[in-house]
Structure formats: C-alpha cells, structure tokens
Task: structure prediction
Amino acid sequence: MSALPITLHVTRAAFGLPDTSPFVMKTEVQLKMAGLAYERVAAIPPQAPSGKLPYIVDEGEVVTDSTFIRAHIERAYGVDLDAGLDARQRAECWAVERTLEDHLYFAMVWFRWIDPTNFAKGPAQFASGANEAERAQMRQGLQERKRADLHAQGIGRLTAAQIAASGERSIDALAQLLGDRRYFGGERPVGVDATALGVLAGVATPFFDTPLRHAIEARPRLLAYVARMMQRYYPEHAWHTAANAQHA
Result:
C-alpha cells in the first residue's frame, strides 16, 4: 500500500452538503470504505484532466471518473467494495447505480441549475468571486452551458413537470429496492451505497426546494437511509433535512 495519501481533487462544501458534487462524495466515501488515507485538494472542473471532478492522484498516477477511480482502488489495494454479494446482487447494485447517475442525477441538476430561484441561491454563487462588471455575464454563461449539457443529455428537452414525474419514479424505484434493508447491499454498506449517498443527499438537502426533495421526504425509509449514511461517513457534518429528525 502507498506510503503517501491519495490526493482527492474536490469541489467545495456548500448547499448543506459536504461537497457540491455527488461524484466527489461517492469517491470520498469509497475511499473511506476501503480504509485508505487521502487528502482533499480543492479544484474546479476546468483544472481536471477530463474537465470533471473528482479525480485522484495516487503515487503519481492520475485517475479520472468516479467509476474508474473505484476500479483503481479495488485493483491497486486488493479491495472488494461488494464483498459478500453474489453475481445477481452485484448486477442489481450496478442497475441501481445507473439509475442514480444516469437519470436521477440529471433530474437533480436541472432543478438545481435551471430553476431560476434555485440557480440564483445556489450555482449562481460560483461567480461571486468575479468583479461586479463580469458577474452577471459569468452567471449567464454558467447556466447556458449547463442548459446545453442537459439538452444534449435529453432531460433538458422535457418540461419541469415531466422531469419531476420521471425523477419521482426513479426515487420510488430506489425506495422499493431498498425496502427494509439498512443499505442497498443488506446489513452493511457496499460500493453502490456511496453513489446513493452522493445523489440522494444532493436531492434531499433542504437548501433547494424541489419536487424531487419532497418525493424523498414522502418516503421515510429512504430519508432515514440518507441520514444513516451521513452519520456513518460524515459524522462531523451537520446534516439536516425537513423530516430526518424523526426517522433517523
């Protein structure tokens, strides 16, 4: 095992979250699951090799994309984050991860970046460091680039009501798959739980008022799951939602 800590390049704590990026949270939790030493280094996406965060540097090797960072961790350190799961359970975890990352995440991003009220109080603040003359233009550019990304992905071609309806369907499916279990893998967390925490906490944070947040709040077991994961992996972070106190 490396004598040096892994360098994890992250965004920032904001929006009531330990990090604004669900993918950073995913990788950080998987590093914690693996018991690996790491240090957080603040970065912005344009500085990243692939233009996205997170990425890690491990003994000089740069690894991008949270999915391939996990593969690197497991291969390089002899870790299996899904230990104890059979082939079908591993397949189910992969299907859950794809629902989270390839659908619910983009619905969350739309309500965070395109909804005017949420954008103004959240992502628009990324431009606060610019001088006043440039701030408005920078904010418009940030939002328009995100709008173009979401349109290309497909979800940006839908109405707000359609995005909310499809997002709630994914949330309900995740709640059904979790069922009475403490974690998606059973009685202990596995790799997909790191992904679930990143996306579901991003949806559930009360910082943003969205129909997706209300959909999670209407499913107490799912809300309690997020609170349980936050307590386990970010005990130093004050996690609050509108309803978690009575369900944790």
